Prior knowledge:
CATH architecture of the largest domain: 3 Solenoid
Radius of gyration: 19 Å
Number of helices: 0
Strand content: 25-35%
Largest sheet: 13 strands, mixed
Structural class: mainly beta
CATH topology of the largest domain: UDP N-Acetylglucosamine Acyltransferase, domain 1
Shape: globular
Amino acid sequence: MRSTRRKEIHNTAILPPDVKIAGNVYIGPYVVVGHSVYLGRSVILHEHVVVRDNVWIDDNVEIFPFSVIGKIPKGAGATSRPIQYTPGVRIGKGCSIGPGAVIYQDVEIGPHTLIGDGASIREQCRIGERCIIGRHVTLNYNVRVGDGTKIMDHAWMAGNMVIGKNVFISGGALTANDNRIGKAGYVEEEIVGPTIEDEAAIGLGAKLLPGVRIGRGAVVGAGAVVTRDVPPYTVVMGVPARVVKHIEKDDA
């Protein structure tokens, strides 16, 4: 991390007068900052970062080039789901946000969380502390991620889903939230992603279908297709996924 023992703002950066800066920061070339933004102590904004309106960035956060923080969601008249959000982004202390990440309005990220290169985090998402959101991971709208959870590269998390604490989701895992595949329009109560309970693990390239519940401490094998609920402390494998083993809680 670049030293921020003194305030350093590049002369090409654009900051409106209502930006609040708590202490020493580094703001690099061609950074653009919007209105009603708070920058905590020792914040680093590398070149070409864009911070939109109503963003709170706490102390010791580092944001790498070409990231966009606070993007306004747009439906462009093409989406069945009405776009809803409350303005504001909050990024907790000590977070690191990789190059090219896009974080929408109405997002909260807990302290000491790592957001990987090219990640996309949509509106209404809530991410706990000390999480990892890997490279090119997508969190669609209204995803809840508990403390200590790790979601590895290229995973895709569907809208309206809940992920518990200390969950591990391997690379390339996919989820879905609509059994009708968009043919019935958007009916809020019917569009529900999976629920993954605390301490579960999802294997490489697994697929979780709408509404399924992965029980606490369960393991979903690589490439499995989960079409029904997975009991706690079991291992499931196959297409469709079936229970192949029970896990002793002491071993979980």
